[in-house]
Automatic annotation (TrEMBL):
It comes from the Eukaryota. Residues 26-179 form the Amidase domain. This is Amidase domain-containing protein. InterPro entries: Amidase_CS, Amidase_dom, AS_sf. GO terms for molecular function: hydrolase activity, acting on carbon-nitrogen (but not peptide) bonds, in linear amides. It holds the Pfam family Amidase.
Length: 436
């Protein structure tokens, strides 16, 4: 286990300096440090994928993942590989083999996974930014739990070469930072974008039904966002929507999963988003099985609680279980593109509430987990970009909000977050004082 001064964030510490250049001061990430999730290839190192048996049965990489190289080329210094959930198959951040990284924002709570160490390294100020991966929520969740920014890019827009696959239909390379400027700078490098001026949003849609899933007072988040948008861009672009109803009417292929899925208490669920989550998790299982089923059955690795059940559920998944996923994805993309138009965003909770307590029993996590995945599946299935934005604390626990933009609108979303964050912070300060 990593030493306590590292918050348990690192699997291994080392220094990989930036690639040599004649004018390092001109590089966009000069003097910044970063950490890398233990799922990326790094020349000469073995990626452990969160499991000791994986580490024992795989050899060192002979090249470095393009996403990591891009950071080194931009002047950043890598300071080590970070802890993760086993086989990237959890959003909690607890690892039975290596220990659980300490959440600096809420020490008695889970840090979130599977990019737990990457989030903790940034939250604890051990690194300026970090790289993680997000398949089902593995950047957005720990970003929210650790009180920092987490960015999941549009699917397929950042190279996943040299990254151990989890489920390719959803895998993305994401990143964390403590401030929106660094988040934007890193994004520009990974996305290959020029510096552009902010394009004003022409539509900010508040998904009111999604906020009903939140366990803290809804106004604590919606009022902060709405007031900030109004101050900067005017109130006429704000609009409340019922996202679940829109998706239900525009994504008819979801009916397949609504009929076959037993939902939780209706008071706490959105039928179409539960179905969306079901379809996502079934395809995720099937792709995980294709990627790693042979290794699991051959090696018979020691897997922790929760992970073990999920992995063996995946091994029992058949192609028949996937159903009309391609139709669902296409219909969802069309529905959201039409809803957003050009330069629109949807605002909704990242997760249904504060991070769960450490070592909470799996059964009592299920309702929370189901609600979380219903929110996380919106970007997961559509492939649209999403950012998690920290909004201070409520009752001493971290609060966040998410913004989602059209596929390929990553630069627009990053610029928007950098522009509005100071105003958001002002409104958070007011909210914390009046305790709404």
């Amino acid at each position: 286990m990593a030493v306590s001064s590292d918050y348990g964030a690192f699997m291994e510490k080392f220094i990989l300096p930036p690639l040599p250049t004649t004018s390092p001061a001109q590089l966009p990430l000069n003097r910044l440090t970063f950490a890398v999730k233990d799922i990326f290839d790094m020349d000469g190192y073995v990626s452990g994928f969160g499991n000791p048996d994986w580490l024992k049965t795989h050899s060192a990489a002979t090249s470095t993942a393009p996403a990591v190289l891009a950071m080194l080329n931009a002047g950043a210094t890598c300071i080590g590989r970070t802890a993760m959930d086993e086989m990237a198959y959890s959003i909690n951040g607890e690892n039975i083999h290596y220990g659980t990284p300490l959440n600096p924002c809420a020490p008695d709570r889970v840090p979130g996974g599977s990019s737990s160490g990457s989030a903790v390294a940034v939250s604890a100020k051990l690194a300026d930014f970090s790289l993680g991966t997000d398949t089902g929520g593995s950047v957005r969740v720990p970003g929210s739990y650790c009180g920092i920014f987490g960015f999941r890019p549009s699917h397929g827009i950042v190279s996943t070469e040299g990254v151990i696959p989890m489920a390719q239909s959803f895998d993305t390379v994401g990143w964390f930072s403590r401030d929106p400027g660094t988040l934007n700078h890193v994004g520009k490098i990974l996305l290959g974008l020029p510096n552009e001026k902010l394009v004003h949003p022409n539509k900010v849609l508040i998904a009111e039904d999604c906020f009903k899933l939140l366990s803290i007072p809804t106004t604590r988040v919606t009022k902060v966002v709405a007031t900030s948008i109004e101050k900067l861009f005017g109130g006429d672009i704000l609009q409340s929507i019922n996202l679940g109803d829109i998706i239900e009417s525009k994504v008819p292929s979801l009916k397949h999963f609504m009929q076959n899925d037993i939902t939780e208490n209706k008071e706490f669920s959105i039928k179409s988003l539960v179905a969306l989550s079901t379809s996502m998790r079934l395809l995720q299982r099937f792709e995980f099985k294709k990627n790693h089923g042979e290794w699991v059955t051959t090696v018979k690795p020691n897997l922790g609680p929760g992970i073990s059940e999920r992995v063996f559920d995946a091994l029992n998944t058949s192609e028949q279980d996937i159903g009309p996923f391609d139709s669902i994805k296409t219909q969802l993309q069309e529905a959201l593109s039409s809803l957003l138009g050009e330069n629109g965003i949807i605002v909704f909770p990242t997760v249904p509430g504060p991070p769960p307590k450490l070592q909470t029993e799996t059964t009592s996590l299920e309702t929370f987990r189901a609600r979380a995945f219903s929110l996380l599946s919106i970007a997961g299935v559509s492939g649209f970009c999403q950012v998690t934005i920290p909004l201070g604390k409520y009752e001493d626990l971290p609060v966040s909000v998410s913004m989602l933009a059209n596929h390929g609108s990553d630069g627009f979303l990053l610029n928007l977050v950098e522009t509005i964050y100071d105003t958001l912070k002002e409104q958070v300060s007011i909210a914390e004082k009046v305790n709404y």
